[in-house]
Amino acid sequence: MPNQDSSRGNPWQEKASKRANAKRKGRIVNPRSPRYASLTAREKATRERALNLLSDLRRGEASYSKLLRKHRLDTRTAHRYLGRDLLGGTGGEPVRPSKGDRRVRELMFPTSFGDVPVRTRSSKDATKLSDFFHDRDNLLRGKVSADAFEAKWRGVRVAGQELFADASAILEMANADELKVENLYASTGPAR
Predict the structure, then answer these.
(1) Phi and psi of 6, rounded to 5°?
(2) 118-132 b/e with 16+ CB inside 10 Å = b?
(3) pLDDT for 143-186, tens place per residue?
(4) What stretches of the chain show up as alpha helix (H) in DSSP?
(5) H/E stretch holding 165
(6) Exposure of 115 by Cβ count < 10 A (0-12 exposed, 13-18 middle, 19+ buried)?
(7) Distances in whole angstroms, Cα of residue 51 to Cα of each of 55, 62, 71, 147, 149
(8) What percent of the residues of the chain are helix, what percent strand, and what percent coil, each to the nearest 5?
């Protein structure tokens, strides 16, 4: 029987050896960010703070170091939860955010019978939905005309589905108290 390497067939040892090999060659290999389902309640709260930091960094609200203090994070924790969404930071280069990410989000999506939760991986879809709900709120408050709202949002697709942009039906649903969106993100668990 030929002499076989004992590490073959074990995926954990293969990953560890690949990481060690990459380290020897001078390349940095980052392990994957932890899965949301495997996180404790405390880790989920830390992840939320890290995502808020990323959002503020994308908007340019402050420098990376000031945002770390604001969100009570250190750079190691931020990199643990955000990984490839934080770019730069080496050789005196400032840390900057990526333009978009592929994190799973459960968002509220407008339909003809109310808002329903939908899952998306695109941060650009989340931004577009946020803009839609902002404009819909302005429509309900009378700050935007029905014609302007429909002209902007009629036929627009997000996550492969067309947004419900019928202004008269939206106003009727608001009068019947069917539209109660306080938060863009769908509730994924019990209230805190």
Answers:
(1) -70, -20
(2) bebebbebbebbeeb
(3) 999 999 999 999 999 988 999 999 999 999 888 877 765 655 55
(4) 11-24, 41-59, 64-70, 75-82, 123-140, 146-153, 167-175
(5) none
(6) buried
(7) 6, 15, 10, 36, 30
(8) 45, 15, 40
